[in-house]
Amino acid sequence: MEEQFTLFPIDTEFEVPKENATSDGVTLVSFRELVPEITDTGYLTHAIVSYPAKFIPQVVRYAINTYTKEGDWIVDPFAGSGTVGVEAYLCKRNAVLLDLNLLLNHIMPLKVYSGKERLRKELMFKLLDGMQENEKHRFIPSWSNVEYWYAPEILELLSQYWGYIYSKEDDVYSGIIKSALLKVSKRFSYTEHRTPKLARSKRKLAAIEELLQENWKDQLIEIVYDHALKTLGNINDFMMHTQHHQNQVEFQGGVDSSYIAVPRECDALITSPPYLQAQEYIRSTKMDLYWLGHTDEKIKELSRLEIPYRKADRVIHTPTLDKVRDQLTRADLHKRLDSYFCHTINALENAMSQLKPNAAACIFVGNPRIDGITVELWRILTEYFTERGYRFEKVYEDRIKTRQLFGVRKNKNPDGMKSEFLLILKKMAA
Predict the structure, then answer these.
(1) d(CA 25, CA 394)
(2) Strands (E), 22-172
(3) Ramachandran area for residue 44 (φ above 0: left; ψ -120 to 50: alpha; else beta)
(4) Angle at 182 between CA 181 and CA 185, to 5 degrees
(5) Cβ of 117: how many Cβ atoms within 10 Å?
(6) What angle do CA 211, 212, 213 make, to 5 degrees?
(7) Distance between CA atoms of 371 and 137, rounded to whole angstroms?
(8) What is the CA radius of gyration of the chain?
């Protein structure tokens, strides 16, 4: 029996026990307990494509139900894997999604599929069967060192499969198969496929060499079929929940959220900015982007816009941020801090400029450490925006057992952040 997900009524409000408030006004919560009907963070279409540091849907659902109403427009300038768009569509809200990563343009047509007829397994199997029989079409990514990442026979098979799919109509079925091919294109490469960033290792080289002595082609195609079948089922389930919905999700990947014009007034902002010490999302997904047809030149252009690699065009000052800055002794960390807050706040301000009066800005952040110093992001954002036309409403602390975004890295916080925070600001009337 397929698992059924019961969604909260659209206008449900959640009461947070007052006794959970700490001495500094932070309210302790568990968003997974506040939204118990979402039992799996990858439910429906959320897990179609892997993505580092995903926004958990329980937080988004809480913000949507508490601070918006049906028909409202929500903006997310750091859309990432599109969690806000999926939840908005499920809750009959509209959304504008912006992100530097071009992956957004490929995954959202699957994640928020607006078709009304159930997808048919036999049509997808026909494509998959044709893909295996293809001997005519080939596709090699426009990647200068693609051969560094693959055994020759694996690269040849992948080029055959991708070439066939690119020769077919660009529709939901080919999109589903592309999502499955992304999975095997990373798993059967020399990179450590369980880590976000590309990292060729002796362990993985040995594993591929061992795999090549086995029935690796059968294993690869089995993963493709399994993933495609599961994705088709998830999209059909999504359509079942949204068959009468008429709302919209607009998305633009490959754009700089700091400066792009948000196309309309919005009723709320719900977003999770990149982490201070782990913002390399283009580099984490560039293997996917190459297979999806993007060029070396374009991916390098976008990579240069990621926070660790671009200069600050202004220096942000707040009491808490200045205190952190004063404690840092290394010039490179000063540069990283200034770049992070400049471009994060630029993007937030740009999106929030389109909020209607009294609209909520719901910003989900952690408190990372830089050179052993805790950076209270929610407090810095509060200090900055309350001086610029926003009213502090509340902040929720959701404690987590452990979260290590990039497990292979040596860092000052190897167990990950202990808590994440949902900051709520309200835009005051002019």
Answers:
(1) 8
(2) 26-29, 73-76, 94-99
(3) left
(4) 80
(5) 8
(6) 90
(7) 51
(8) 22
Helix pair angle (103-111, 172-187), 10° resolution? 130
The reported pLDDT for the residue numbered 15 is 55
CA separation for the pair 422, 393 (Å, rounded): 11
Instruction: Decide: 422 and 363 in contact? Cβ < 8 Å.
Output: yes
Sheet holding 419-427, edge to edge: 26-29, 390-399, 419-427, 355-366, 266-271, 73-76, 94-99, 249-253
| The pair of three-digit structure tokens given for residue 349, joined into one six-digit string | 């301000």
C-alpha–C-alpha distance, residues 109 and 104, integer Å: 9
Distance of CA 377 to the CA centre of its chain: 19
Helix (H) or strand (E) holding 361: strand 355-366
Q: For residue 354, what are the contacts with CB-CB under 8 A and spacing of at least 6?
A: 75, 262, 264, 265, 266
Question: Which DSSP helix (H) or strand (E) runs through 62?
Answer: helix 57-67
Average pLDDT over residues 329-343: 93
- How many degrees, rounded to 5, is the angle at CA 93 between CA 109 and CA 394? 120
Distance CA(310)–CA(322), nearest Å, equals 21
DSSP state of 56: P
- How many CB atoms within 10 Å of residue 398? 22
Q: How many other C-beta atoms can be found within 10 angstroms of the C-beta atom of residue 45?
A: 24
Supply the pTM of this predicted model.
Answer: 0.91
Higher pLDDT among residues 346 and 16, named by residue: 346
Phi–psi pair at 60, nearest 5 degrees? -65, -45
Identify whether the C-beta of residue 95 lies closer than 8 Å to the C-beta of residue 76: yes
pLDDT tier at 135, thresholds 50, 70, 90: confident
The token pair at 408 is 């292979």
Report the amino acid identity of residue 223.
Answer: I
In angstroms, the CA 89 to CA 85 distance is 6
Helix, strand, coil fractions of the chain, as percent rounded to 5: 40, 15, 40
Three-state helix/strand/coil letters over 74-85: EEECCCCCCHHH
d(Cα 384, Cα 318) in Å, to the nearest integer?
6
Cα separation, 300 vs 290, in Å, equals: 11
- 178-182, 224-228, 311-315, 408-412: least confident range: 408-412
CB 180 within 8 A of CB 228: yes
**Any idea what the Cα angle at residue 41 is, between residues 15 and 271, rounded to 5°?**
65
Q: Which amino acid is at 249?
A: V
